[in-house]
What we know:
The structure holds 2 protein chains of 2 kinds.
Chain A: E1 3-13, E2 16-27, E3 31-35, H1 42-50, E4 57-62, E5 65-66, E6 77-80, H2 92-103, H3 109-118, H4 133-145, E7 151-155, H5 163-179, E8 182-186, H6 190-196, E9 199-204, E10 207-208
Parallel strand pairs in A: 3-8, 3-9, 6-7, 7-8
Antiparallel strand pairs in A: 1-2, 1-4, 4-5, 9-10
Helix pairs in contact in A: 3-4
Chain B: H1 2-20, H2 30-37, H3 49-82, H4 88-120, H5 129-157, H6 160-177, H7 183-189, H8 192-201, H9 210-220, H10 225-249
Amino acid sequence: MKTLTITNVCKTLKGREVLKDVNLSFESGNIYGFQGKNGSGKTMLFRAISGLVRIDSGEINVFGKRIGKDVSFPESLGLTIENVGLWKQFTGAECLETLRRVKNKAPKTCVSEALTRVGLEPDDKRKYSAYSLGMKQKLAIAQAIMERPDLLILDEPGNGLDEAAAERLYNIISEEKQRGALVLISSHDGDFLQGLCDLTIKIADGKICA
Amino acid sequence: MLKKFAIAAALALLICLNRFSILPAYITDISSLLLVSFGAVLPFEGIAFFESLIAMLPLTAQMILFAEYIGADISTVSVYIFSRTARRDKWLFAKIAKLAGISVLFNAVCLAVGVIFGLASGLGVSAELPVTLALLFVTMFTWSALIVCVIAVCAVKIKSSIVLSVSAPAFMIWVFLINFIPRGISRWLVPLIPISNELLAAHSDVTQLEFLSARLGESSYTLPLWWSVVYFVICASAFLVLSRRWIMKTDFTETR
């Protein structure tokens, strides 16, 4: 069983403690939900796990490797972070293909497969700049799942999605769990998390509440 | 990117045409025209501020384009790229290498415009034209590469528009002020002069360049060639060490 452990993690940004002595443990093949208000520390915790920010103290071990020491980021990671865009001059397929080429390990077909899974048309010639909020969110989810990562971190993935798309997202996350991936997901929607997650964690002011 | 590059090339063309439109009497061939037009001599002749600005515009166009290009990647998709690559520094340096390649093309276009304009104006093609082109290309490209790299790295941490709004005027002012720095000091700040001298010295028998060679030689005294090499090795090493440290330790906490 692969595990992700967070031990005594603290992070201060501009004099404000955004993560306070966080201790958590996760196992692969499970879905863990994070619930909390804006600014509670959910996104910062996700960024710390992803290696995008350096923690001030503590340890984050992902599948046996310490982030920031053994590796600079988890080796098999799919990530969506709120409010992060893609190349506005590219089509959805071009954006995903550009990202696929960074690692260049997954086959080219993974791009169209991922687009189809989230409900986007692989041959759509529209540029990213012409996408609606919902389409942008679907594309962000597609880039996260396309390389079949062992760790999937989804920050507010339901934002901008209509009911049908939210249901599709629900199914995708469940499929990823069945595949054996460890899924960390945050959402304002408590009902969405309750129905989907194996465990829901509440976070407030950078501290784990329950 | 290509569209912007085309706009910048058209802008450079207009700038070049503007600069070539006044042909002093001593310019009788394309080599002289290029040397005067692209600043091989001008910085040591106490040129006017406006002329300095015009001379720097092609380079400034590159700075704007490149900072925006790399800034766009960093601002929009850094999260998705850096969660996929173990070596942020490698990614950044690959980007810089790509920009350097584009810089080669850009400078080649600028020089080609000069040659075409010279031919259209009926100026002669002398034997020293290849040497002149090599000299100018090395000079322009080296400066472009150095400045563009600094801009690119700055754009990683600071919004590219801020980097540009500070660096472009600062660079222009530096180029202008160097005219007023005593030559004993300024020669150490312009390490490309030894390379230029070597190139010109190798072709000292060329009569068409006698006037310009004399001006270059007079203004730079006799700096050894190795100084150019050492200068750029030091600059490049310092740049690589600092930028690597910067990119590896940067927190990507906000969407810019």
